[in-house]
Structures are given as structure tokens and as C-alpha cells.
User: Fold these one by one.
Assistant:
Number 1:
Amino acid sequence: MAFKLDKKTFDSLSKEQKLIILVISIVLVIYIDYSLILKNQITILQKVNPRVNSLSNQIKTAKKDIKSIPEMELRLSKIKERATVITQKIVDEDKIPALLEKISSKAQENNIKIMQIRPIRDAKAKELATTQTGKYFNLDISLDVRCGYHNLGKFLNELENMGQFIKLQSLSINIDTKDYYHQQVKISLGTIIIKKN
């Protein structure tokens, strides 16, 4: 049975019949829209949703990181300042004689007689680190001196505050039986040197 609805037939229908046709048409359009269009869109959205969540989390993390940039720049600035201070305390390999002269000068200022001073660089010494500027090594400095206890303490303190990395590695005091005020002292110091590229 074929159903044909033209304008003349539609105008002749009662209001209830027109309303029923309108409701059936709307339901039919919704059904067709759901089955052909919305169903596919919902499936696609379900597949895209995890990616949207992942991107949302990445955006939150990026915003948080962007807010922390000034703090990171401040920390980097402090690290660079600290690195500059540390770098200034490391002796260049070609300035070892100047370091020995500084040590000798500090000894004279404290009434310490240096009998012998010599750098001892182990040829087999492993490098401590390698950077763009060069290779870092330990350098031992051996001192044989004659001095009093108080002068020795003051001298060692001044070496520590001299501006280079200098550490006291060993200290040996031999009492001089002829002169109790002056002792024979063997001092082993350690420092770090850089061999620039």
C-alpha cells in the first residue's frame, strides 16, 4: 500500500493527524541521524578521548613548567656564579710556579724557613674530570720546613684561605732536640690543576 501525502491531502487532515505525522517525522529524523551520523561520531569521540586527556595533562605540565622558568633561571644563575668561584680556585697547569711562589711567600710572612718545596705530579694519575675547557688532575706539593708550632698553625690557616683549593694531606713534626722552639716539619699538600685544551 503506497502512501502519498501532498499539500491538498495534508491540509485536509485534522490537527491530531497533522501532529502525529509531525511527531513521527521528527522521531524518524532523529533515528536516521543517530544510526547514520551520531553513532559514528560517538565511536570516534571514544577513540579520541584518551588522546585529549593525554594532551590536556601535557598542557597542564607545560603551564606548570612555564611558571617555574624564572625560578629555574635563578637557580641556573646561582650555579653559574658558584662554578665561576670554583673555577677561579683551580690552578692552571702553567701557573704551578706562581702557586709555589705564593706558598713560599706565605711561609716567609709567618717566619717559616722552607728547606725544600716541590710539586709531585704522578705521571699515572687519572684525570678527575674532563670538561670543554680541559682535564682536571690532582697535584701534590711536598714541603720540608723549619718553624715553631704557632707559626705553623697560622701558615696552614693562611694556605687554606689563599684562594686556591689546597688541602693538607699529611703533616709530620720531628722535634729538634737542639732547638725546642723550632721543629722539622714535613707537609704534604694537595690541590687541583687544570690542563687546558
Number 2:
Amino acid sequence: MGVYKPVIISASRRTDIPAFYWEWFMHRVREKYVVAVNPLFRNQVFPLSLDPRDVEAIVFWTKNPAPCLDGLPQLEEAGFRGRLFFQVTVNPYTQTPLEENLPSLAERIEALATLARHIGREHIFFRYDPLLLARGSQCIDAAYHKEQFGFLLRKIAPFVSRVITSVVDTYRKSQVNFRRLLTEHNLEVLIPDSTVLGTLAQILVEEAAAQGLQVYSCAEGGKTLQVLNQAGVITGSCIDLAYIGGYLPTPVILKDKQKDPAQRPACGCTKSRDIGAYNTCLARCKYCYATDFRLTPRLIDPRVDLSLDVINLDDSLRRRIEKLRDEQREIPANKRAILKTCVYK
């Protein structure tokens, strides 16, 4: 098996596990492993240990931490105390068709405050993300962002350690959604040009500074990053080993410290293993890269050990997954190694 290398678990860039799949996640923690499937090459399957001795930290991504709050003590008692980090997105789009399926802003801010009281503000990043403009039935411009971001930050600043932002991307999935927004809601989504982006970035930096916070970019490069940097936005890493290591209860022993090759070139995140699945998030925000609105959301059964459902897996691959599962269960926890990705042709 070789020497084990601890990992950072990302839960998840692909879906909102704290909001929608906490029962599934805690079941996997009790079983101490999860079987992950490569979302692009579904014949690549690999088990990941969730034994706390095998995991350096867990980074959660969510718009609504409320459903996971009652389960945090159990997760900490399982061995993850001090090793939980949250990326919490709070945007000013809740009253627009962009974010139609979220609880009220007041509920989510209260959940964020409760989360901070439990794990500490140092373990929470506030994502104001993505930055976009709109016109038509509603106006989202620089003045709107100044008012809304200032309001949100005054509520949220005591509970977070930094602000993260990025500019909306026009993925093929989101382009379809944007066309529907224009047709059905008379809402045209716009990407800020360099001049407007500079203004927006300056607003964020000044408002954050007034609350004692700094603003970091997420996966931006080229001209966009240059504009952000000129306004005072710091080139960021959402999963930042240097930062995370400073707040872990034990020294960082992670061997694999390089940039995550599975992410976009401009992403500066430390390598992690994601255990989520695309097209499972029930928030279905219209700008999201992880949701294809032409498909019905796939629900993850809380009892299964896969990071996504097995409906589309053929019998041969299903049997091989069963074998991987059995192998992982049989390895003593103190000798467990992450198995290399198994490719089945």
C-alpha cells in the first residue's frame, strides 16, 4: 500500500453538503470512508478514508449551514475538533430569480453566527461570490453592490476571518440559464467590464477594511486579476494550507502541498479530494457551474457510500466498487492508505 499521506477533504465544490446532505455525510464519517467517482471519467473510482487520523482538515462549502449545526458536536467528537473550515456564501441576490431556493437572509446570517460561536470565526470565510451586474426587471449595479455588501458585512464581519470574491463566469450551463432569465423574467445578467470591476473591487476592499477584514480573489487570472489587485484585492486560495495549518490543533503533516491540479489554472488552492457530486444541489442558483438545469437534481441516498448515485453505473463497475468498499473496510485504521485511483476499462 505504501506510506499514507493525509488529505484535505473538500465537501464540496460540487454540491451543498451542509445544507442538503448532512445525514449522508455523517453516515460516511461513522463508516470512516467514502467511495468517490471521477465526475468526468466515471470509470475511475477510488475510496477515501474519513478516519480522522487520515484527514488533515475538512473544508465545507455552503450557502446555508443551519442543517449541520446540531451535528457539529458529533463530528468533533468523532475526532475532527479544530479541523473544520467553512466557506459560507452570502450574496445580495436572494430577492432575485438568481437565488430562488434559499432560506431567508436573516435565517442564514443567524446560522452563520451560531456556526462562528461554535467553531470560531477563524475557521470561516465569507464568500461574496460571484460578482455580477443585471438590468431589466431589477437593477444590480455598483450602487446596489455598495449598499448590499455594506449591509451584509456589518452583519457578518464579527463571524468571519476574510472575504472571498470572484467575477461571474459564463459557463455553457449558466449561459442557458441567463437566456432563460432574460426570456422569463426580463433580467439580463451582465459581466462587469474592467472599469466597473475596478469600482466594485474598490467598494469591497474599502467596506471590508472598515470592518477589519481583507478581500481575496478566487480563481482569477489575467486582466481580471490585475484589476482586482490594483483595487487592493489579494490573490487568494480558498483552500489555503498556510492559513489552515495555522489553526489546526496539531502541526500540519500533509505531504502533498502543491497546487490542486484538478482545479482551473487560475485556482491557487492546495490539493484536496472532493467528495461531492454535480447536479445534486437543490439550491439551483442560476449562475452555478455545478448544476445543469436541463437535468432533474440527483438525490444522494444517505445510506450509500458513493459520492454520487449509482443509477448510471453498469453491473461490472458496480461489482468492482463493492470490492473496493470491502477492501477499505478490511484495512486496519492505523495502517490504512489511500488506494490509488482504480481505472476500469
